[in-house]
Design a protein that fits this description.
Number of helices: 3
Structural class: alpha+beta
Radius of gyration: 17 Å
Largest sheet: 4 strands, antiparallel
Number of strands: 12
Strand content: 25-35%
């Protein structure tokens, strides 16, 4: 599978270039990043207000029936971190990767979400098995150190989040 490679060298995912052209990802890393970290549109039962349902506009015009990009992990951002929440994150991650299973890019997917008390983050580990039997893992540190920064006057400032940061090494796939 060929994709434009997304890198996370500065804490923000971006494309890179080699010799004046896009760097190519010949594996599954870009597909995993886009599938897990993109916001899948919520249903009306999940989010009643249409303008708050997020999602990718391209889902409205796709020719593939039932195909939706992204995951519903974003629905858990404001939830208390309970075992039910962690299980919901795992289920959402697996559902986001269903397209990879049905297209034969992978033969198995496992998701494991754990809460890290020290920095109030959720670590999501995704393990995929390729048709040739090779196993690879990608980790996402969700909502790491999400804080509200107070300005000197005491008014609320910006919200910063480490959403989407890698959990292992330099963020490489299969470490």
């Amino acid at each position: 599978m060929l994709d434009i490679k997304l890198t996370n060298d500065t804490g923000v995912f971006d494309v890179t270039f080699e010799n004046g052209d896009f760097t190519i990802d010949r594996g599954l890393e870009t597909a995993l990043v886009v599938s897990i970290l993109s916001d899948r549109r919520a249903s009306s039962s999940q989010v009643p207000q249409p303008e708050l349902r997020r999602g990718w506009i391209g889902d409205l015009v796709t020719s593939l029936p039932g195909y939706k990009i992204g995951s519903h992990i974003w629905l858990f951002e404001q939830s208390r971190t309970t075992q039910e929440t962690l299980s919901g994150i795992e289920d959402s991650a697996k559902k986001a990767l269903d397209w990879m299973l049905s297209s034969g890019l992978i033969v198995n997917v496992d998701a494991n979400a754990t809460y890290n008390v020290s920095d109030s983050s959720v670590l999501l580990r995704i393990t995929v098995t390729s048709p040739d039997g090779s196993v690879s893992m990608k980790a996402f540190n969700l909502w790491k150190e999400t804080v509200i920064n107070a300005k000197p006057s005491g008014t609320i400032g910006s919200i910063s989040s480490g959403y989407g940061g890698s959990g292992y090494g330099d963020g490489g796939y299969g470490e």
